[in-house]
Design brief:
It contains ten helices and twelve strands. The strands form three sheets. Strands 2, 3, 4, 9, 10 and 11 form a six-stranded parallel β-sheet that branches. The chain has a four-stranded mixed β-sheet with strand order 5-6-8-7, covered by helices on one side. Helix 2 runs parallel beside helix 9 and helix 8 packs parallel to helix 9. It starts with about 25 loop residues before the first strand and ends with a strand. By secondary structure, the chain is α/β, with parallel strands linked by helices. The structure holds zinc ion (ZN).
Length: about 375
């Protein structure tokens, strides 16, 4: 049970500013210079939040509970895989998890205090394991308590406190946070990120199925969702892009695809209706499609000298961990093979940012800034 007596910003409104269902991303981001790369790059980033991202939604927490409970062992096995294939990933971690005491700096309902175990709100020993991984990992931020930074309910002072708290907690571990992943993938307030020492962030991409008519109506959301299912099933090659410098001076590293894992949680309602062997087959098919899609992304990155940026949540690996990690291992193996052939680099977000910064032609990030789609497909 969480003891929510400690708070560093009691004026912060309750809730995380969760976007409405199907609310489309703003995929148009002002940017200037586009990086050029000598060869393709694979970036792997992870959003680690445990239960912190669901304290405002009890039914969401319940639906994720088993995945969250399995996240610790999934992270350990994933780190072993990173060592085996020399993968340095970016771990975007919510600041609350840096804390060692069972406190939640968020005004929350009593069910959170009653139902969520302490070790789903604090995870310093897990951070130790990531930080001490023999293949160095990039520890970045996913905000302090997983707030939607684009929400109008929050002003710059509140968001600034979030970011400052993250850097303060990181300094306590001898770290500086360079990489940022926006909660709900809602990109906003880039000047604040720069003010608080961040140098790069994960941006949206230009998946074909997001380019049609946009709107907040549920019909649009269902339509986009249906197209996305088709895209997943056909394993359409994912977008591959290059880092782009935004006027605030940061580098945007667009994502290419999310690795969702076994997907059996979505089929849970069929448990007891269909034999388990059918559900296992559906899981294996879902994983196979993602691995094929990721392999196409890697080959595209090599051919176009772009970045294939794969991301996931460790909690996506929290159930059916063995088969989900086996799929990911296939992706790592392919990337490692191209790297051995000298045709691909594997870098975390901070490494890629240092790399493109050192090759940058523009001292002033504002020069040539324009409004362009966030991805080039
Ligand atoms: Zn998140």
């Amino acid at each position: 049970m969480a003891d929510c007596t400690e708070s560093y910003a009691t004026e912060f409104p309750a809730g995380l500013g969760r976007p409405h269902f199907g609310q489309p991303f703003d995929r148009t981001i002002e940017h200037g210079e586009s990086a050029t790369l000598e060869r393709g790059v694979v970036v792997f980033s992870l959003d680690l939040e445990l239960a912190v991202a669901s304290v405002d939604d009890r039914s969401l927490y319940r639906s994720l509970q088993r995945n969250i409970a399995g996240t610790r062992q999934a992270v350990r096995r994933l780190l072993a895989l990173c060592v085996a294939y020399r993968i340095s990933a970016t771990w975007a971690i919510v600041g609350q998890l840096f804390r060692s005491s069972p406190t939640l700096d968020l005004q929350v309902d009593s069910w959170v205090q009653r139902d969520i175990p302490d070790d789903q709100l604090c995870a310093p020993e897990l951070l130790d394991e990531i930080q001490q991984c023999p293949v160095g990992q990039d520890i970045g931020s996913h905000s302090y308590r997983h707030v939607n930074m684009a929400a109008a309910d929050f002003d710059d002072r509140m968001i600034g406190e979030e970011l400052a708290a993250c850097q303060t907690l990181a300094r306590g571990r001898g770290l500086t946070l360079d990489s940022f992943v926006f909660p709900f993938n809602r990109v906003a307030r880039l000047n604040l990120l720069a003010e608080h020492g961040f140098t790069c962030f994960r941006g949206a991409n230009s998946d074909w199925y997001t380019r049609g008519p946009a709107g907040n109506h549920r019909l649009f959301a269902f339509w986009r969702s249906a197209l996305k299912q088709a895209d997943d099933f056909l394993a359409v090659p994912p977008p591959v892009d290059v880092p782009r410098r935004v006027p605030a001076g940061l580098w945007m590293i667009p994502h290419s695809m999310m690795y969702k894992g076994a997907g059996r949680a979505r089929l849970a309602f069929l448990r007891g209706v269909l034999p388990d062997v059918w559900l296992d087959l559906a899981s294996d098919l879902a994983i196979n499609r993602q691995v094929v899609k990721a392999a196409r992304g890697i080959r595209r990155a090599v051919a176009r000298r772009g970045v294939f940026h794969l991301w996931t949540h460790p909690q996506n690996l929290g159930q059916h961990t063995g088969r989900t990690l086996a799929g990911l291992e296939n992706v790592f193996r392919l990337a490692d093979r191209y790297r051995r052939d000298g045709r691909l680099d594997i870098m975390n977000m901070a490494q890629l940012t240092s790399h493109v910064q050192s090759r940058s032609t523009s001292a002033d990030p504002k020069v040539g800034a324009g409004s362009m789609p966030a991805g080039i497909g």
